[in-house]
Amino acid sequence: MTSPHCEKGLHIRCDVFEEMKEAERISPESLSPPSSPFPFTTAVRDSSPELMAIREMVLNATIDCFKRHGAKAMDAPVFALKEVVRCVHGDDNQLIYDLEDECGKILCLRTDLTVPYARCLATSNINNMKRYHVAKVYRREASAMIRGRYREFYQCDFDITGSSDPMIPDVECIQVLVEILDRLSIGQYVIRVNHRKLTDGILTLCGVKREQFEHVYDCIDKLNQTFWEDVRSQLIDRKGLDPTVVARIGSFIHLKGNADLLEKLAQHELIANSNEIMDGLRDLTLLLKYCEFYQLADRVIVDLSLVQGLSDYTGVVFEAHLIDDEIAVAGGGRYDGPVEQPHSKRTPSVGMSISVERIFALVEKKLKQSLSAVNIKTADVYVTCDCNQHDGDDAKLKGLVWDSNIPAEMSFFNGDLNSSDSSDSSNSSENEKATEFSQIPILLMVSTRSSSNEMVIRLRSSHSHQEHLVIDKLIDAIQRSL
To answer: Looking at the predicted structure, is the pLDDT value of residue 85 above 70?
Structure first.
């Protein structure tokens, strides 16, 4: 939809604005106010310096952990051929933003970072890699923005590709996840684990046909938001399952525990005859054993109700769940299938994705509740020249500070500390307010003695009283004050 233009810029008529709201099928409150000449689309937002400071803190902590485990950074185009996306995710187009290039090829914005990774592996003939990828993805979905879900949002992926002994890369992914969550300190959490073969085998044992698995997963996944009775009704009334089959599913799906639960399941007479279930139990038993070695056992629990995204995985799956906030902030698992399809050969892979947008929202919320200020400091020194005539003294000073690799900002106003003029005094006061607002710890004020034409430097910091300095002693004084 286009909007009329005029000489003074872009204007959107009221009727066009109403059409936009209707087309998006949203409430008017989720758009920019009608008085704004540039309404947003839904479920996106600008990021202020305070929000960007939170993002940098979270992303830097996450990337540091990835690098500590030997992962290499990767990047990929933001759009892809739609047929490649369809090869991995099927024909469901509900989440895809469609594009078309000048040659008529049908493209789409990426909905995740796994498809670009699969394509990169296929085209580069890479068989072994440990990588991370932090970038924005785009999904056309109804969003719950309070919980950090947007149509444009960051994903933070960590993947290990290549042959290995069983469960070693899988447990390293869990180790990385625990290190990140511990460093971010966003609350108590538990790592829920399950296995695709275990769940598939149990559904088969209960009498569910394989073509019904995905529908059953969708219903079971709602146990986080509702009660079993509601899920049971959906399975029977909407999915058409026999009540006896649903009762069998219910007897398994609520099970949670550790190695003792796995041992108990392995001794079940019906389960012992299922090779698929026993394969899953062996993997999970070995995973928990490695978790003990890595001192992760108290963070991990086997939960057979964990089925979100299970159809995309081939083995172990896991999810980090915040206990107090009752939301998931990360998830992953073994997904040999999506990478195998573009290849002519099988490529073992395991990985995870950190829901950093949810973490951004949680950190922002906690800071507001604690009334803590977000540190948006980008410089250590603020330089101002208190002279009526700009003679370059402040430039010399900033050059000296920058050459010493000390971040510094400059004032865009000149004033005279010795002048009684109110405007000059106001400029000096405004400079001090500017340093306080931007959380810059050191204020340098430079002026010139009228009698000797000598440069006078005054340093004021939060750690010391104002002091007069000569330029040769300046850098040492700044470093002492930092």
So the answer is: yes
* Measured CA distances, 471 to 440, 443, 457, 477, 478 (Å): 20, 15, 7, 10, 11
Which candidate, 405, 364, 386, places its Cα nearest to that of 466? 386
Task: Work out the number of other CB atoms within 10 angstroms of the CB of residue 395.
Answer: 14
Q: How far apart are CA 168 and CA 171, in angstroms?
A: 5
Q: Kindly give the residue spans of alpha helices, DSSP state H, lying in 189-332.
A: 196-206, 213-220, 228-233, 243-253, 259-266, 275-293
Which of 137, 326, 150 is closest to 223 using CA atoms?
326
The tens digit of pLDDT for each residue in 244-302 reads 999 999 999 999 999 999 999 998 888 888 999 999 999 999 999 999 999 999 999 99
Closest by alpha carbon to 221, among 147, 303, 305? 305
Phi, psi angles (nearest 5°) of residue 2: -100, 160
Rg (CA), the chain: 29
Cα–Cα distance between 155 and 419 in angstroms, integer?
55
Query: Over 60: is that where the pLDDT of 20 sits?
Result: no
Backbone φ and ψ for 320, nearest 5 degrees, come out as -90, 120
Long-range contacts of 247-254 (CB under 8 A, 24+ apart): 248/205, 248/206, 248/207, 249/202, 249/203, 249/206, 249/208, 249/216, 249/220, 252/202, 252/206, 252/304, 253/220, 253/223, 253/304, 253/305, 254/228, 254/304, 254/305
In this prediction the pTM is 0.78
Q: Closest Cα partner for 115 from 338, 269, 289?
A: 338
Q: Average model confidence (pLDDT) for the chain? A: 79
Is the predicted pLDDT of residue 166 greater than 90, yes or no? yes
* Planar angle of CA 261, 262, 263, nearest 5 degrees: 90
Which residues are CB-contacts of 142 (< 8 A; sequence separation ≥ 6)? none
| pLDDT band, very low/low/confident/very high, at 388 (cuts 50, 70, 90) | low
Type of residue at 351: G
SS3 108: strand
- What's at 9, amino acid-wise? G
Query: Which pLDDT belongs to residue 359?
Result: 92
d(CA 144, CA 142): 7
Supply the DSSP symbol for 237.
I
CB 328 within 8 A of CB 143: no
pLDDT at 415 over 70: no
Return the DSSP state at 347: -
Q: Which residue has the tokens 């902590």?
A: 61
Taking each helix axis from N to C end, the angle separating 114-124 and 82-89, rounded to the nearest 10 degrees, works out to 110
Q: How far apart are CA 242 and CA 336, in angstroms?
A: 33
Nearest in space to 347 (alpha carbons), one of 480, 163, 167: 163
